[in-house]
């Protein structure tokens, strides 16, 4: 947490936007396995995969039902197909979990970045409030001094007018 506050303080002192650092971060090292898991998870969760896989299963079943009487490839209970599907699920689940973990790390980093931006904004808003309050105090002081001068001038005018009225009477 101290590291985050230090980053915000440095950005304020440098008068730079935190977003610049966040939009151009140092290149993240992504391993080939991580890239592969992301691509497999992306493909495995797409309509393209669902349609293709449904088509392959339908062809497999039709072939084995229609030709299964003459060939012993994978007859009715489709044990080989079940084995392949189980292996696919066993491999696909950890790959998808690896991709989700990477996405979780990205989301955590994004939330941290949002926190930094919000923190800096809050600090800047507080600074602006302090500056506005200071300006208002200065304005009030100037107005009070101006009002005092006006009152003195008005008193002088009233005194002068009163003296003139006395002269007229006498």
UniProtKB/TrEMBL annotation:
It comes from Solitalea agri. Keywords: Membrane, Transmembrane, Transmembrane helix. This is DUF1003 domain-containing protein. The keyword Transmembrane helix applies. It comes from the Bacteria. The chain crosses the membrane at residues 49-66, 78-99. The keyword Transmembrane applies.
């Amino acid at each position: 947490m101290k590291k985050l506050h230090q980053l915000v303080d440095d950005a304020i002192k440098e008068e730079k936007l935190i977003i610049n650092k966040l939009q151009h971060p140092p290149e993240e090292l992504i391993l080939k396995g991580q890239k592969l898991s992301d691509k497999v998870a992306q493909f495995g969760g797409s309509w393209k995969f669902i349609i293709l896989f449904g088509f392959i299963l339908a062809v497999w079943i039709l072939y084995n039902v229609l030709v299964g009487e003459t060939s012993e490839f994978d007859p009715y209970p489709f044990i080989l197909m079940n084995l392949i599907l189980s292996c696919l699920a066993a491999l696909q689940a950890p790959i998808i979990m690896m991709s989700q973990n990477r996405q979780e790390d990205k989301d955590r980093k994004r939330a941290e970045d949002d926190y930094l931006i919000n923190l800096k904004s809050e600090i800047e808003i507080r600074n602006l409030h302090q500056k506005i309050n200071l300006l208002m105090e200065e304005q009030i002081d100037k107005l009070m001094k101006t009002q005092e001068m006006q009152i003195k001038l008005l008193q002088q005018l009233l005194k002068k007018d009163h003296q003139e009225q006395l002269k007229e009477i006498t």
